[in-house]
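Forgive a beginner's question, but would it be possible to get any protein sequence you like and the tokens describing how it folds?
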Amino acid sequence: MAHPPLASTDRRLLITGASGFLGWHLARAAQATWQVEGTYHRHVPPLPGVKLHCIDLTDAIAVNDWLAQVAPDAVIHTAALSQPNRCEQEPDLSYTMNVEATRVLAQFCGSHHIPLAFTSTDQVFDGQAAPYDETSFPSPINVYGRHKVEAEAILQATHPNAAICRMPLLYGPPSPTAECFLQGFLRTLEAGQPLRLFIDEFRTPAYVEDAAAGLLLALEKASGLLHLGGPDRLSRYDFGLRLAEVFGFDTALLLPSQQAEVPMPAARPADVSSTSQRAVALGYRPRSVVAGLSATQAWLNP
């Protein structure tokens, strides 16, 4: 069921995780069409024009009372524990953040008929049957993916009109309080150090501002599952080659490696590339990795 148009500057959008990499970029983008309020837990994000709330989303009773006071017109839930290795090492914390906090928001928004968009992940798949679309059956192989699948099920049960947006690997300029994997790549290459990158892990990366636009679109036009991947299926090594091309690094610094050479707490699916045709039909327009990296470079060197 399509939602009526929501966006107007006198309506209030609550973004959880506004201090995060995606949340910060989303809060900036949303201000064009919404009065934006955001949550943070530890780090106050510089966001002029956004009303910020310091809240522990894992405190269910406090969050319910607080939501009733804030009374948002719509919610985008980006707050999460999203590092697969950390989720594997701290499964209880992952469950509290990724499942229980989502349950509280889903129940509140569902019972008050408040439009909600939720950020899930391409890690809900095992990587054996790519490319994945919204009809593909989830089969996660790590704790992070399992907890996101559980959160998706809670949303589908308690707020069927919510948009469940499966996010890909995101990249772009850092926020003042959060980085993405790209910043580590750039530091290594700028120092002239070799960078080992997997040739056997495939994703469909999206530029963070495109993903933010996709979430705002989903909030207005979608319900149920929606994939917000980028247009290019790439290995980490392929991504590195495009990074070298755009930023002018020596490709000899890029060393092809394989997942098996780097033991990690969380298993990584080999290929979670996804098709985002459903979102594209709604108006989602993710740019290519080369275009996204060029936009990142322009942002970092104005």
About this structure: The radius of gyration is 19 Å. The longest strand covers residues 35-40. The first helix runs from residue 21 to 30.
